[in-house]
Amino acid sequence: MEKIYFDHAATTPIDSEVAKIVLEYTAQKYGNPNSIHSFGREARKAVEEARESVASLLGADKSEIFFTSGGTESDNLALKGVALANRKKGNHIITTAIEHYAVLRSCEELEKQGFLVTYLPVDENAMVRIEDVKNAITDKTILISVMFANNEVGTIQPIKEIGQLAKEKDIYFHTDAVQAVGSCPIDVNEYHIDLLSLSGHKLYGPKGVGAVYIRKGIKIGALQDGGSQEHKLRAGTENVSGIVGLGKAAEIARREMVGRIAYVTTLRDKLIKGIQDKIPDSKLNGHDERRLPGNVNFCFSYIEGESLLLNLDLKGIAASTGSACASGSLDPSHVLLAMGLSHETAQGSLRLSLGCGNTEADVEYCLEILSQIVERLRSMSPLSATTNLLLNNPCNQYYNH
Ligand SMILES: *Cc1c(COP(=O)(O)O)cnc(C)c1O
Fold this sequence. Notes:
Blueprint: E1 4-5, H1 16-27, H2 38-58, E2 65-68, H3 71-85, E3 92-96, H4 101-112, E4 116-120, H5 130-136, E5 141-145, H6 159-168, E6 172-176, E7 195-199, E8 210-214, H7 229-232, H8 240-278, E9 282-284, E10 295-300, H9 305-314, E11 317-318, H10 334-338, H11 343-346, E12 349-353, H12 360-380, H13 385-392
Helix pairs in contact: 1-8, 2-8, 3-4, 8-12, 9-12
The protein binds pyridoxal-5'-phosphate.
Pyridoxal-5'-phosphate binds at residues 70-72, 75, 100, 102, 147, 151, 176, 178-179, 199, 201-202, 210.
């Protein structure tokens, strides 16, 4: 059976060039970068080259890049590290209702420690309104954290405007850019970003490695005690092979971003248009234009996302409902709820996230299979229009009770 991967927002396949270098630094070049002998120096050199490569992708200086175990740790470090180190200045944090749980749960933890957190609402397209950010700022606000692009519905936020506002008010600005790095051109200076989280495995790199950009001069404390690695901000022997893999992924992203964006956007638009043309009662979630190149997210009336997902999987198509971290539970997505969708509609969402390994044939196959599945599930659904017609038809005794 043909297998199609449409879940790049959960994780991307690893680039073959990346896999090769990860293996090299796992199997042969295994030195500890903190050792001063030749094995150590070889590893140190590779780690610093990776730092340079990640910095280049963001328009940052290499001294502003700190390696972590991934997006979750980067978010935790940025939020808690800044909050705890700036407590004397103020105890108020502004974020949004649609953040990844790595940010939301970090904020909840900070609330337990006495911080006040404002969770900004979003509009029906999942966009944060600048006015709301402005109005939320108090003289106690020390940090604003707004994700660059949403992992479920793909909406790209007005980051530059928020960054400008934060800068004017002398408030630190963090963005969770895990979904955006490699898919959107980002320059930390142009966008006035002070802290930024990214993750290797959302960028065709390895899992378990990420980085946080921290602008020079930002006051931040470590969360972990131990050695003095990463300028004492992140103790523990560096994940050398992961870091080198992330560096390679960043280098490739920088080189190929423009072409990748154009290619994936074309596939995305073909899939969106195909679904809208072929499947009635389907609703696109997220913004029409300010949307991640690979993100497609739909609600199909009368159908649960979970049944769609399982039926697509039987046909070899890997998709997702909302975010991977939330699946396994039938809770409706907090992002769709924040956009104003009802609980019922929010349970019917399907996310198809495309990447640069996908083809037009994948899109066509998916369109064909998806419309068949939707039609079949609707014909069985007690909620569907056809069933309702039968139920409400007084001539039809059989369905009447
Ligand atoms: C995947 C993701 C994370 C978590 O990154 P990990 O490296 O898996 O810990 C954080 N934020 C967003 C927006 C994500 O998509």
